[in-house]
């Protein structure tokens, strides 16, 4: 989830959701859906023309 921008405090929230489900048997779907909305954009990856440029460079190497 770090690739979606989660940080330490966000992981604390995530682990609480897991605990609520596993230990307490709670239904947390709505809360998780709301929480996850903040983390929709994938980071630390190539996109668009950046990807094409690097892919061509890799092909030239092989």
Give a structural overview.
This protein has 62 residues and is mainly alpha-helical. It has one domain. 60% of the residues lie in helices and 0% in strands. The chain has three helices and no strands. It is elongated. The model has no long low-confidence stretch (mean pLDDT 89).
Helix and strand arrangement:
Elements: H1 8-22, H2 29-36, H3 48-61
Which terms summarize this structure?
mainly alpha
Briefly summarize what is shown.
The chain has 62 residues and is mainly alpha-helical. It has helices spanning 8-22, 29-36, 48-61.
Order of helices and strands: HHH
Strand content: under 5%
The tally of strands reads: 0
Integer average pLDDT = 89
Taking pLDDT < 50 over at least 5 consecutive residues as the criterion, the unreliable ranges are none
Rg from alpha-carbon coordinates:
18 Å
Our count of domains comes out at 1
Our measurement of the CA-to-CA distance between the termini, rounded to an integer number of angstroms, reads 32 Å
How much helix is in the residues? 55-70%
Major sheet summary line = none
Structural class of the secondary structure composition?
mainly alpha
Task: Tally the helices.
Answer: 3
* Principal-axes shape call: elongated
